[in-house]
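Researcher: Next entry in the queue.
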Amino acid sequence: MVPNKLAIASISLSQYPGHILDHKIRAAAQAGIAGIEIVYNDLLTYSQTQNIPIHTGAQKIHTLCQETNIQVLSLAPFENYEGSTTPLKERLTLAAHWLEIARLLHAPYLQVPSIFTADCSRDEKIIISDLQQLSDLASSIKPVVSIAYEPLSWGTNCSTWESALSTVQRVDRVNFGLCLDTFHEGTRVWGDNASPTGVQMDAEMKLRDSLRRFVRDCPREKIFYVQLSDAERFETPYSLAHPWALAGEAKEFTWSKHARPFPLEVEFGAYLPVVEIARAWIVEVGFEGWISMEVFDRRMRDGKVIPETAARRAVESWRKVQVEMEV
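Model: Structure for this entry, 327 residues:
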């Protein structure tokens, strides 16, 4: 078995408002999960239910994580930052707040998904400068927080691991690297929720070539952590008439919000080539860092799936992925 430690995003333990962050952390720890990605809104909800400021909430959650022997991996997701039309000063002020919370949580990473708004800048110099300033802010106070930059398959300027790696290399900061998610690779080069077949034309070739280039070109030290999730094949192919469709929203974003079960949960329609992607990203490059489950399963919204059940599903999913990677 690979030596990687398993984490899970707090939102992937339940999307039901009544399942509060401290409950989720205890459930993850009870299932043997070693780390957790704290979703900012989960922390905010926890703090509000406790009637305490979010800074105090972050301190209390850190203490709980120490007591339950679970490590905070990241604070997530700091969205739509680079190239935004909002004044940079305002964005950096908001970033400073998030970084302060990350340090109170003792989170080594701030997760930053690639920007996905339509009205953002396409100027590469502006994008790189924005990210350099964010990285420098994150390293200006000890402990240093590292920026885990994630290419979203619907990202406006950055939607592949290759474009993200190019950004990482141009930003050129020790504390700026990659957060890679199997969902984004799988839906960018292989799956298609608008196709009756569920797959793109030449999908196998495109995926094989992408993974071959990854193993050849991606520096292992720039992989900060890897997220695993699958995707559910749409019974009715996506169109603007689909009940989940929203005007102006990328079809991959719609897919992501509603139909991302844990890897290999075929009972929930999972069908992406997660094992092939994970084998390349983890085994073939010798990545020994954190693996985190990040799923968005619509079945977790009504409270019927409790965090304990979700945590057990995550552990079983990781066990199955590990077995399949070694085949």
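Model: The chain has a mean pLDDT of 97.
Researcher: Noted, moving on.
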